Amino acid sequence: MNKAISFAKVEYERDVHRLHRWMQEEHVIPFWNLNIPLDEYKEHLQKFLGDRHQTLYLGCIEGVPMSYWEAYWVKGDVIEYYYSYDPFDQGIHLLIGEKAFLGKGYALPLLRAMVRFQFLTLQTEKVIAEPDIRNEKMIHVFKKCGFEPVKPIELPDKTGLLMFCHRETFERKWQHVIDTQKA
């Protein structure tokens, strides 16, 4: 992909209406269940922005916000009860919000960039995901990125597929891309 990828931390005032709009999209609703009234979403976003175990980002292509990301520490998240985690394990949730960016092959390069960013924390040896087990497209993207399915898990809001991406696997798989980006 010959387009610039960037991430910006979510800012409540700037982003609340955009994120609420994305949560109303037909391709987002079944997997996020946040197609709620704006006032409720405002409370939800404020709560999530105040949660110190996660950081919320907008993913951008050529400076255009088009995706939403929740990068989190497993410790302190509900997922910590579903496997024997390391204190530096991180996790990721994502969605492509702008329909014009769907089906263009952006999900994999964006995911790769975010996982690479998470591995900048040298103690992190594993990034996890637990996409909705029905979300075959995202499971496929996670696998292409280097995530391996571990087991289905019953979370409070969905049946997820627990997936692990180990640093060694990721770096081996993407070393050519990482080297190219450094040059």
TrEMBL record:
Name of the protein this chain belongs to: Lysine N-acyltransferase MbtK
PANTHER family per record: LYSINE N-ACYLTRANSFERASE C17G9.06C-RELATED
Keyword Transport listed: no
Keyword Coiled coil: no
Keywords assigned: Antibiotic resistance, Transferase
Taxonomic superkingdom: Bacteria
Pathway: Siderophore biosynthesis
Lineage: Bacteria, Bacillati, Bacillota, Bacilli, Bacillales
